[in-house]
Amino acid sequence: MKTKTKKILTILLLLAIASSVTIFALVTMQSPVRQAITQSELDDLIAASGGTRLTTNPGPDESPVWSPDGTKIFFETRPDVGSGRYSSECYIAVMNADGSDVTRLANGTNPVLHSGKVYFEYYDPVYTELLVTEVMDLDGGNKKKLLSLNERTHLFQAISPDRTKVCYCTYYGTGSYLVWWKNGTVTKEKGNWNIDGDKYNDARQSGEMLMAGPETHSDIWVMNLDESNKVKLASGIESSNCPPRPEWSPDGKKIFFINPVISPETRIENIDIWVMDANGGNKKQLTDRPGYDAGPEFSPDGTKITYLSENQDNFDIWMMNPDGSGKERLTESPGADAGFEWNPDGRRVAYISRSSNGYLYKTEHDFEDKSEIWVMDIDGSDKELLLSIPYPYGVIGGIEWSPDGSKMVFGFHPNYGNDDIYVLDVPAASAIAGVVSE
């Protein structure tokens, strides 16, 4: 689902940039250091910028989305069962826009609102590899199962806008492994990394080798929600370092995906955005800059796409037309800009900016390194800073505009406790056209 894809991609990209290593080196990161900072200090800091804490659950609360009328917020919540442990149960809950009247609606995660319905996922309690997608009314009634697919064989499932088809990926090995080097090149060797890995010990210890792992490829498939009419749309996509993560265009006529390519001549890996028709025809490469281009996000009217593009070890936000023309760079900050979200009328873009010389999971945190929410016009002008939080407090998660553009709801990942949800007032100049504050 869209929310899940954006959340995972944003976290991986930001942490990858901040640590100056490739994405799959995340497993080596250290646990966060607890700072002598209280919850009230954080709340006061956010309140000074017009923000309010909405959730107080001892367990984590995240993935907030607005109801169509802006009076409710749906989110996922997980109970705290004591001793610093969280329950394996995750719930879809709803609350009023001021944080009151919290109600659990269903077991599940990753809520997405579409046409007045709530779509969500959960793992089958018996067959734990099955990822189940259900839909329900806004009050939790009329639950209906849409999909039940093995996530190991049906990865990155994306339901079409008309809710009749699902696009997904399959993974398979090639019998080779890849080695990523500090100089930016990638080498390919025939064999099994688990057997051959010891011969790279010196390179690993010297820092010349960044990481290594099995070479994997992906195919992209589409089928009806009842699992009929299965069609392969693309095959043999290099996926060792970045999966394709297919996404539908708003009109359901196109499918966008990520395609990593390792140059046979230079052995340097580029990750680009591609598009194809919903039937697999007319495949076209949309980006071709060196490095990583990923995370395409459509404007509300479907005429523009914002995306992340690597620039000298950090990510900036770019914009292009759906056919790849008209590319414009919107941000040029020294940090990592990501987590972007179009406002409802498509005139402004909000985004999260984080320092590139520090990250959450490290031994020390510098108050000069910050996590911030900015807004800008769609041509990159009139940038406004709405919220700035130093790293010792934690980092800002995903953001979402309210339907009238007057507020943003966001998740916050504190460096000392559980995830919480906050709401932030947006100045009238940054809100949707026609909304005027007194």
UniProtKB/TrEMBL annotation:
Question: Under what name is this protein listed?
Answer: Tol-Pal system protein TolB
Give the UniProt family note: Belongs to the TolB family.
What species is given as this protein's source?
Candidatus Methanogaster sp. ANME-2c ERB4
User: Organism's domain of life?
Assistant: Archaea
Q: Which residues form the signal peptide?
A: none
The gene name on file is: tolB_1
Name one matching Pfam family: Tricorn_N
